[in-house]
UniProtKB/TrEMBL annotation:
Residues that span the membrane, as ranges: 6-26, 33-54, 60-82, 89-111, 141-158, 188-207, 213-232, 239-255, 267-284
Keywords associated with the record: Cell membrane, Membrane, Transmembrane, Transmembrane helix
Lineage: Bacteria, Pseudomonadati, Pseudomonadota, Betaproteobacteria, Burkholderiales
Lipid bilayer topology: Multi-pass membrane protein
Keyword Transmembrane carried by entry: yes
Name of the protein in question: ABC transporter permease
PANTHER family referenced in this protein's UniProt entry, alphabetically: ABC TRANSPORTER PERMEASE PROTEIN, SUGAR ABC TRANSPORTER INTEGRAL MEMBRANE PROTEIN-RELATED
Organism field: Ramlibacter cellulosilyticus
Length: 306
């Protein structure tokens, strides 16, 4: 039974990476901005967080460095697409390519570096419960933070005035502007917040999930997180469930290899991406359902003077 507890714990760990990044992208898209640069932001944050831990020995400083890197790149992206009205999709792709190249260049000297001994976390008493304890209560605090973030975001978007304003900007920026709301600044704040969460996710990968630095180590998780927002129809709780689903598929490949299943490793490595394509194909069969849930101004530029 221990192997199943380990599989479940690994699923939560892998799902946390996707959940934090996808929640950041959800905030962006609720404001009407599509950021395809998640992969690049996560890679830059991964090397920033890893380097910070190497030099300071503090995981939390590493997380802050990752958040800062993600927020900085998102701010640059926001200035380009919100104030200079560059194409959101092309700018996002450029950011993703820039992040991949810059992180590879900056990370050359850190490839052989090792982090200090990783701490082990366990909730007193609960962590000692057979089967359930190792699976649920011996996780890194960031796993529980992701769950708390979902709860907070549900309240923020649907119960707070600021969340209502953010959603109104995503639905009809012209109407929000006519009511006197600073649409561009609200969108920029949403983009920076989303970038900070993508940065936190990237730092989590290099500091906790796989505590090392390797070029391209995000390995498509930014694109999966982007697909998750559509899969979840822009709902925070569904983002979390989807993240755990894809995390489970990711970990299943290692579980099958560990149990000696005779399947080529290349095929098992394809599983998360095949699952992403299948899910998106199924969802796209009902475009009307997507339109009902999708922010009306998603991906559309806003010109205050018109």
């Amino acid at each position: 039974m221990d192997q199943y507890a380990l599989l479940f714990a690994s699923m939560l760990n892998a799902g946390t990476v996707l959940a934090i990044a996808a929640l950041g992208l959800l905030i962006n898209e609720k404001a009407g901005i599509v950021n395809l640069g998640a992969e690049g932001m996560m890679l830059c944050a991964a090397i920033a967080g890893f380097a910070a831990v190497v030099h300071t020995g503090s995981d939390w400083i590493g997380f802050l460095a990752g958040i800062g890197a993600g927020a900085l790149l998102a701010a640059a992206f926001g200035l380009l697409v919100i104030w200079m009205n560059t194409n959101q999709y092309a700018t996002g792709l450029a950011l993703s390519l820039f992040g991949a190249g810059f992180s590879a260049f900056a990370g050359i000297q850190y490839v052989q570096e090792k982090l200090p001994e990783r701490p082990h976390f366990s909730i007193p008493l609960l962590g000692d419960i057979p089967l359930i304890g190792p699976a649920l209560f011996r996780q890194h605090p960031m796993v529980y933070l992701a769950i708390g973030l979902v709860v907070w975001l549900m309240w923020f978007l649907y119960r707070s005035r600021a969340g209502l304003v953010l959603r109104s900007v995503g639905e009809s920026p012209e109407s929000a502007h006519a009511l006197g709301y600073p649409v561009r600044r609200i969108r920029l704040a949403a983009v920076i917040a989303g970038g900070a969460l993508c940065g936190l996710s990237g730092a989590y990968i290099s500091i906790i999930y796989t505590p090392l630095w390797v070029e391209g180590m995000v390995a498509g998780k930014g694109w999966i997180a982007l697909a998750l927002t559509t899969f979840a129809t822009w709902r925070p709780a569904r983002v979390l469930l989807g993240a755990y689903l894809f995390g489970g598929v990711t970990m299943l490949q290692f579980h099958l290899q560990g149990t000696g299943v005779e399947v080529p490793s290349e095929f098992l490595g394809m599983l998360p991406y095949v699952a992403t394509i299948v899910v998106l194909a199924l969802i796209s069969r009902n475009p009307a359902w997507i339109r009902v849930n999708m922010p009306a101004s998603l991906g559309k530029p806003f010109y205050p003077g018109t």
